[in-house]
Structures are given as C-alpha cells and as structure tokens.
C-alpha cells in the first residue's frame, strides 16, 4: 500500500516552550540519550540529573522547567517545582511513535510535553484534555485532521508499526467479532485511568458477560509478546475466555477485521475510532467521555470535566496535530505530523519489503545487542 506523503496546509509549529533550562530528573541513561536532541530544541540549556537534590543544586527559577517521565514525580520534585516557580513538565511518547518498540530503546519521532498533567492520568486534567474541551479548531485545521486520519488508515499506521499487515483468517462462524486488546497491567494508564476492570482477564470476563453471542479475539500487548514486559503466563487463562488468541498479525488488521473493540484504556481504542469501529471502554482513556465511545466505567472524575461532544476530526486535531511534538531524527529538528507519518510508513514498508521488519520483534540475542549499542552510545 502506498506511503505517499499527505499534503499539509502548514508545517506544525513546535510547541512554544520559552524555557531557559529544562532540568530532566530521574530519566534512565538510554532514555536521556534518546530524548536529548528533542528536549535540547525546547530550551537554551538542558540538564539531566538523578534526583531532586541534584535538581535543587541547579537553583531552578520560573524561567525553567523541571521535567519527569510519566505521571508521578520522583520524591521532592513536585515540591521543588512549586517552590521555585518552575514548570513541572511531564514527558511521554506520542500516539504514533516509531517503527519499533520504546522498550527496545528505539528513539521516538513524537513526544508529549505536558504542563498540566499527562493524557493517561484520568484523575486530573492534562493539556490534551484542555485542548479537547476548549479549543476552537478552524475549518482548515479540521480538514487537515481528516487528511491525516485518512493517511493513517490507508497506510495501516499505529504506535509502533512492527507487526505484519496480513488479514487474519478467523473462523467466527458468522458471529460478531469483538476484539479485546491486551495491556501491560502494571502500566500507569490502568492505575490512573482504570475503574472496576483492571486486568486483561477481568476485561475478558466482562466482555464475555456483555457479549455472550460474540466471537472474542484477544490480542496480547506487543511489549508482553516481545518479552520486555511480564504477562505471558496469563495467556493460558485468556485462552479459556477468548475464542482466539491472536499473535501473528497486527493490531491494525485485527481492528479492520473486527466488528467492535472493547478495552480498558488501550491506545487500540483510539486506533479503532480512526477506522470507524465502535469502541466500548471500561476505563477513562483520553479518547473516552466525548460522545465517541460507549463508556462502561461509572463515576470517573474525568466525566465531569469532559462535557464537550467531539467529532472524530476534532479528536484527531487535538490529539495528533496540537498535542505532541514531532521530530526529524536525521535533520535534528522539529517536524510536522504529516512528515513524520510519511517517514514512519516509508521506513516500515522498506523494512517489510527487505524481510527485516520481523527482526524488530523477534530474535532475543539480536534485540539485546541493539539495546547494548544504544546503552554504550549513551555513556
């Protein structure tokens, strides 16, 4: 399928981050190495430090940002930011990230820098939630979002882009097919965005109860299948609840072949919305609560904040065009969403034609060697 670049009305302007310094606290060596060029482009001076004491020694001011990875600051960091007036900046991968897993130390081509919270923490607001709740997008911006969405769908893009795009052959016997994407159960997205359903097995039980007529496909998370995260043992229990455990084809082709998607907070729910599939949520992911999903979780704090009804293109404009920072690793400069999508699609297609795409997923020794090279270069 063609990876032709979508046209853009304008290049995305990098987020205005007028920081004198970014002081990044507690990032692992490899992550600091991968993020260094992206963060350096957002400030005059960039520092990586181990803890809040080292950050305090740099005497941050209101002109600076104290950056962390994820939702929960290391001890003392939030107090330091509050006392100094520095912005507490939370970092996380963007929604379409790379060709290859972050857990395999592949550098990101998109990054979130959130001043308010972080998109997967439904216990409080985030920059993304504020954008979706309040932004007035122009007709041109919504047209651009529609074009980006069409490119993503046509080229089968998702967050990591490593799995083969082969249509699944499911013997569903004419029953409606419900896709249940697995998640890493220790991820903060479940801890901070989940409700009464907080494990893959509990989700499968809930789906089986809700849709006894359905043919249920369970798709394990790629980090679990790669061995980078725990959870493979639960596959045996999942097989007793699902009609099929799908490990061969991509999440995109699974979405395309199913009738609906049920999830706690998985990004696969967003992928499914982009492709026009009904989505049922059992938590409060960033794309839920806006009238685009059927939300089974009751009494979530996010529902009281998310009062606006969104169109799909408004969701895309906020989530993919306004929220992340995009990066050109070769040119070492910011980039547009469209250019990054085109580059990811082209890279994936070249690797697939050469028979090299599976090397990003399989071969334990080869993947460990790749990680070792990154770690050595990060010294």
Topology:
Blueprint: E1 19-25, H1 29-40, E2 43-49, H2 52-57, E3 65-69, H3 77-84, E4 87-93, E5 110-114, H4 127-134, H5 139-154, E6 177-181, H6 188-193, H7 200-210, E7 215-219, H8 222-226, H9 234-239, E8 244-245, H10 251-257, E9 260-263, H11 268-274, E10 279-281, E11 294-295, H12 301-305, H13 312-322, E12 325-328, E13 333-335, H14 337-353, H15 364-377
Parallel strand pairs: 1-2, 1-3, 3-4, 6-7, 6-9, 7-8, 9-10, 10-11
Antiparallel strand pairs: 4-5, 5-12, 12-13
Summarize the structure.
By secondary structure, the protein is α/β, with parallel strands linked by helices. It is built from 15 helices and 13 strands.
Distance between the termini: 40 Å
Instruction: Provide the CATH superfamily of one domain.
Output: Glycogen Phosphorylase B
The average pLDDT is 89
Order of helices and strands: EHEHEHEEHHEHHEHHEHEHEEHHEEHH
Helical residues, percent: 25-40%
CATH class category label of one domain: Alpha Beta
CATH-defined fold name of one domain: Rossmann fold
How are the strands of the largest sheet arranged?
2-1-3-4-5-12-13
Question: Biggest sheet, open or closed, and with what strands and sense?
Answer: 7 strands, mixed
Secondary-structure-based class equals alpha/beta
> What percentage of the residues does DSSP assign to strands (E)?
15-25%
Shape: globular
CATH architecture of one domain: 3-Layer(aba) Sandwich
Describe this structure in words.
The protein is of the alpha/beta class and 379 residues long. It is 37% helix and 16% strand. The protein contains 15 helices and 13 strands. The protein has a seven-stranded mixed sheet with strand order 2-1-3-4-5-12-13. Strands 8-7-6-9-10-11 form a six-stranded parallel sheet, with helices on both faces. Strand 3, helix 3 and strand 4 form a beta-alpha-beta unit. Helix 5 crosses helix 13.
């Amino acid at each position: 399928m063609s990876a032709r670049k979508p046209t853009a009305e304008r290049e995305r302007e990098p987020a205005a981050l007028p920081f004198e310094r970014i002081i990044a606290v507690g990032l692992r060596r490899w992550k600091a190495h991968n993020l260094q060029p992206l963060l350096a482009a957002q400030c005059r001076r960039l520092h990586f430090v181990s803890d809040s004491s080292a950050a305090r020694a740099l005497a941050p001011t209101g002109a600076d940002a104290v950056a962390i990875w994820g939702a929960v600051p290391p001890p003392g960091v939030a107090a330091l930011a509050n006392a100094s007036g520095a912005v507490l900046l939370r970092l996380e991968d963007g929604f379409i990230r790379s060709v290859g897993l972050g857990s395999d130390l592949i550098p990101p081509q998109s990054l979130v820098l959130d001043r308010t919270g972080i998109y997967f923490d439904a216990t409080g607001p985030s920059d993304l939630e504020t954008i979706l709740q309040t932004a007035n997008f122009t007709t041109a911006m919504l047209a651009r979002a529609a074009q980006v969405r069409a490119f993503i769908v046509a080229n089968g893009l998702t967050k990591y882009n490593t799995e083969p795009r082969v249509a699944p052959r499911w013997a569903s016997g004419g029953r409606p097919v419900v896709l249940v994407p697995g998640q890493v159960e220790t991820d903060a997205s479940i801890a901070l965005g989940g409700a009464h359903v907080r494990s893959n097995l509990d989700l499968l039980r809930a789906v089986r109860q809700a849709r006894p007529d359905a043919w249920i496909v369970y798709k394990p998370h790629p980090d679990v299948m790669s061995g980078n995260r725990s959870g493979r043992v639960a596959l045996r229990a999942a097989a007793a609840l699902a009609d099929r455990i799908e490990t061969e084809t991509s999440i995109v082709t699974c979405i395309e072949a199913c009738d609906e998607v049920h999830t706690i907070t998985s990004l696969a729910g967003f992928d499914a919305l982009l492709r026009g599939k009904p989505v049922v949520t059992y938590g409060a992911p960033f794309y839920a609560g806006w009238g685009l999903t059927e939300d089974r979780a009751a009494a979530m704090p996010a529902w009281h904040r998310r009062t606006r009804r969104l169109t799909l293109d408004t969701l895309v404009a906020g989530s993919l065009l306004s929220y992340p920072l995009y990066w050109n690793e070769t040119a070492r400069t910011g980039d547009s969403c469209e250019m990054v999508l085109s580059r990811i699609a082209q890279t994936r297609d070249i690797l697939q034609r050469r028979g090299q795409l599976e090397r990003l997923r399989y071969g334990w020794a080869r993947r460990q060697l790749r990680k070792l090279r990154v770690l050595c270069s990060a010294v």
